[in-house]
Amino acid sequence: MRLSLVADLHIHTTASDGTYTPEEIVSLARREGITTIAITDHDSVDNVLSTMRVGAEQGVQVVSGIELSTEMDLAELHLLGYGFSVDDPLLTDQLGYLRVARLERIAKTVDLLAELGIHLDLEEVLALAGDGSPGRAHVARLLVDKGYTSTIAEGFDRFLGHGQRAYVPRDRCHTIDAIRLIRRAGGVPVLAHPGLSAPGLSCLPELVKAGLMGLEVFYPQHSPEQKARFLELAAQYGLLVTGGSDCHGGGKDQRYFGSVRLPDHCVQCLLAAVPTHTT
Ligand code: AMP
Ligand code: FE
Ligand code: FE
Ligand code: ZN
Asked: 227 CB contacts (<8 Å, ≥6 apart)?
């Protein structure tokens, strides 16, 4: 009898604003009895191959993954991609461009904070991001470290969140282009956490027409009613059902790895759709 599969398909690592390394993620998966994972860093695939290598050594199945920040009708939509080729040239180009856009945005954020009397050193923010893709979460962490705020959430509520005084819009790719990018790289595009981005559902028919293949139904902040509705929508549009914890690490303000476990039949359907780029 084959073992049933249990997956967490939404995990951030040190390649973006998560705190766990690939080694730590794989060892947590083993400890929690999770058989299949995908790391989905914001606009980065830098840790995918190393996670696949460690996963192969330790018996954890790893599917290539990413979470792209995209824009549709002026709203931010997050698009997950699974099972694509990490060295696809178009994807590599787009990620290089997004990395520069992120750097420029963080520099502007630091300038705006300075105008508010909050003096952070850009180099310190970038050091927190290390080799990973820098984001507002790194700024929020430094605000806590320097005693300007008590929690990461407070940093977003007071300064960094959409519409707050140090919020800087940034260049994002259009959701439809991002769907096509993932498809062209051989992967499965999935709309992330639709419960957090209401515009996502009104655009669903358009996204499906453009090639969207899945909906992230299982997610910590989705209520039972939302899950039921998203399952119905997935069935109506013939979409794969995915899910994950959106774990960013182990500290406070962070959701814990494995808090969402995608059931066997959903994992099987996803794996059937991505025969390659999975260890
Ligand atoms: P960015 O990619 O730079 O736009 O930053 C977005 C990331 O910041 C999200 O993926 C979360 O990790 C984090 N984030 C956004 N809002 C909050 C919040 N209210 N509290 C804690 N983290 C947040
Ligand atoms: Fe994040
Ligand atoms: Fe997201
Ligand atoms: Zn995420």
From this structure: 217, 218
The pLDDT, as a whole number, for residue 253 is: 57
Q: Measured in angstroms, how far is the CA atom of residue 99 from the centroid of ligand 4?
A: 17
pLDDT exceeding 70 applies to what percent of the chain? 97
pLDDT at 275: 72
pLDDT value of position 29: 95
Ligand 1 atom at minimum distance from 135 CA: 3
- Atom 12 of ligand 1: nearest residue by CA position: 137
Candidates 179, 177, 167, 159; CA nearest to 81 is 179
Q: From ligand 3's centre to the CA of 174, what distance in Å?
A: 15
Q: Which residue has its alpha carbon closest to ligand 1 atom 18?
A: 153
Judged by average pLDDT, the poorest of 11-20, 24-33, 167-176, 245-254 is 245-254
- Distance (Å, whole) CA 152 – CA 158: 10
CA distance 107 to 213: 36
- pTM for the model stands at 0.95
| Cα–chain center distance at 197 | 14
